[in-house]
Amino acid sequence: PTREKFSAEQQQRQRQLLMKAMAAAEQQGADAVVLPEGALPLGQALPAMPVALLSGGFRRQELDERSSVLWFPAGSTRPQQWLDKQRLVPLGEWVPGGLAGLSAVGGVSPGEAPRLLALPPPLGPVAVAICYELSDGLGLNQAVRDGAGWLLAIANLDPYPLALQQQFTALAQLRAIETSRWLLSSA
Questions:
Q1: One of 4, 9, 26, 37 is an active-site residue; which one?
Q2: What mean pLDDT, rounded, does the chain reach?
Q3: Any residues with CB less than 8 A from the CB of 160 and at least 6 apart, and which?
Q4: Which of 40, 108, 172, 176 has the fewest CB atoms below 10 angstroms from its CB?
């Protein structure tokens, strides 16, 4: 659960699991590993990874905290590219009037509207939807018109009931059909 995953104990466990996954990915010849929304906490430096990493996480831009998709090329310890979440979950990430403490995340600032993340080959340009953004296909359609060759849908669905998790999967599939693009989903 979100309230537990950022504890020091859980972070250490997640780092160990990530290192095992990266070693397996390298052994299998993977181009990249993809993690869901919020997998990496704010400002976490990683050891140099043998395989590229595309992960949900948090970053700071000036005074604002952003929920983002972070791109770590192989060998990089910090993200080299990112795309910030633009449509925030009401009362989950964004609270009217800036009231803090009402949610596990709360206080996240939105990013810009374009949903295109220009990754280097072999992955190439990708249209990105982070969680709730999947409900509106306009941004993904525009990203495809701008050159995205595939779709990435990531989410942190552990706090939500099974029906909402299934809805996310169905919406992701619908967006893939609408855009005639392959879909990779990590939730």
A1: 37
A2: 89
A3: none
A4: 176
What average pLDDT does this structure show over 50-61? 93
Rounded to two decimals, what is the model's pTM? 0.89
Show Cβ contacts of residue 109 under 8 Å, excluding neighbours closer than 6 positions.
Answer: 61, 64, 65, 66
Q: Is the pLDDT of residue 165 over 90?
A: yes
- Amino acid occupying residue 89: V
Rg (CA), the chain: 16
How many residues are recorded in the chain? 187
Annotation marks residue 85 as catalytic: yes
Q: Which residue has the higher pLDDT, 103 or 39?
A: 39
Q: Which of 5, 62, 85, 93 is catalytic?
A: 85
Domains contained in the chain, CATH given: 2-186 (3.60.110.10)
Indicate which residue of 9, 112, 131, 178 is catalytic.
131
Q: How many CB atoms lie within 10 A of CB 16?
A: 10
Helix, coil or strand: residue 14: helix
Q: Annotated catalytic, 131?
A: yes
DSSP three-state, residue 185: strand
pLDDT tens-digit map of 72-125: 999 999 999 999 999 888 777 777 765 555 445 557 888 998 999 999 999 999
Q: Taking phi first (over 0 means left), then psi (-120 to 50 degrees means alpha), and beta for anything else, what does residue 99 get?
A: beta
Question: In the annotation, is 37 catalytic?
Answer: yes
